[in-house]
Fold:
Amino acid sequence: MLCERCHERPATVHYTEIVNGHKTNTHLCEVCAGQVQAGGFGFMPQINLPNILAGLLSQSPSAQQYATKTRQETSCPSCGTTESLFTQKGLLGCGDCYRHFEDRLGPLMRKIHGSSSHAGKVPERTGGRAKVIKKIKEFKECLKQAVSREEFEQAAQLRDKIRQLEQQLSGGE
Structure:
């Protein structure tokens, strides 16, 4: 699939926007996506992810606490991204920044997502195995709850569903 903007390079960034129940898909190459992202995907140029993150970081009560705690500004040893640059831009420089700024990112992720670990949806086109694993995890949690409530018939049904999905994962069915 070619980029919908330049019609030259392959589309590697897929953006879905849902407004008032109307779904719009946009397929862009990395170059065009970077240009569009700088403008905030068109409808509200002043609001884009880095601006939102930078705003959350600068307004966060832990931001002042963090700044006073670390008196000397730190930077990522791999890419050199500094704490103040990260706070201003809302962008990290490399994968090591996540480990280096972990004490700062943890509270931010909990504030944004309610958790510091990702447990989001699985894309339809790639789903398969990941969906089955997620379903097993959900069934196991329900099984624990059913056993604690002493609902053994429901627990037995859940146990059977878990076994069936585990066989499916191992290639049994």
